[in-house]
Amino acid sequence: MGGDVALVRCPEAKIYDHGPQHPLRPQRVLYTWSLIEACGLKGRAVGGARISLKHANFIVNERGARAADIEALILLAEKAVREKFGIALEREVRIVGDA
């Protein structure tokens, strides 16, 4: 599974057709932002950082967010998606140093 797509069945998340489908095994793609949104995290804030209201795959620095605020939101999204859907998200960023 890549960092931005997951191949699963999930009635709560927004599902999109993705390319040609095998007639006996149709495949659906769930985007990471869709899973985060389905967990109710769109707009959630920690300190000065917020999961974007426009696109749940982005964290916005609204008012002097610290690295710890951003990392807390990442951990929150990872945990929520894992608990609700059983999917372990893969980060597209690497945390360097201590928050």
Roughly what fraction of the amino acids lie in strands?
15-25%
Distance between the termini: 27 Å
SS elements, strand count:
6
CATH topology: Uridine Diphospho-n-acetylenolpyruvylglucosamine Reductase, domain 1
Order of helices and strands: EEEHEEEH
| Count of the domains | 1
- Unreliable residue stretches: 1-12, 15-22
Q: Could you describe the largest sheet, including whether it forms a barrel?
A: 3 strands, antiparallel
The assigned structural class equals alpha+beta
CA-based gyration radius: 15 Å
The name of the CATH superfamily reads UDP-N-acetylenolpyruvoylglucosamine reductase, C-terminal domain
The CATH class is identified as: Alpha Beta
CATH architecture: Alpha-Beta Complex
Strand order within the widest beta sheet: 1-3-2
Which word captures the global form? globular
Mean pLDDT: 78
Q: How many helices?
A: 2
- In helices, the fraction of residues equals 25-40%
